[in-house]
Write a structure and sequence with these properties.
Helices cover about 70% and strands about 0% of the residues. Helix 1 (about 1-15) runs parallel beside helix 3. By secondary structure, the chain is an all-alpha fold.
Length: about 150
Amino acid sequence: QLVALTLAFHLYQNNGRPRRWLTAMKRAAADGEVADRLRALLHPVADPEMRKLKAQERRWRRRDKERQSAEARELRESRDNLNAHFEQLRTELSSHPERAGQLNAIRYLFDRTRDDQHQNHWSSYDWRGLAADFGDDLARLFRDAAQNS
């Protein structure tokens, strides 16, 4: 009976789990060892290693989501701060273009232009990429500061 039940269960799984097949199996395995085996087939005990792996994956997803949220918050705060001080930056750069490399705002924007895949190459710095995160005005301000310094 146990062998027949196991075979019937595998056929049930491979054929899309038809409800009437399940009903027939439950009728045939009404009590005893056969009923216990059907319950075990329908509700298998989770492998402890698999449970640990899934828990680790959940922790990783949660940490990744927290990291992405923190990065988005930092970018938003930086953009707001730079836009709030835009005129002051423009005035400072127009009167003293040689100080561009000394301004934290310009150095921050310079770091944001870095292409992470090519961090060791000077050619990987692209001021146009700033426009998506900071707007055209700040991107052009950075470009002009980089050209004038």
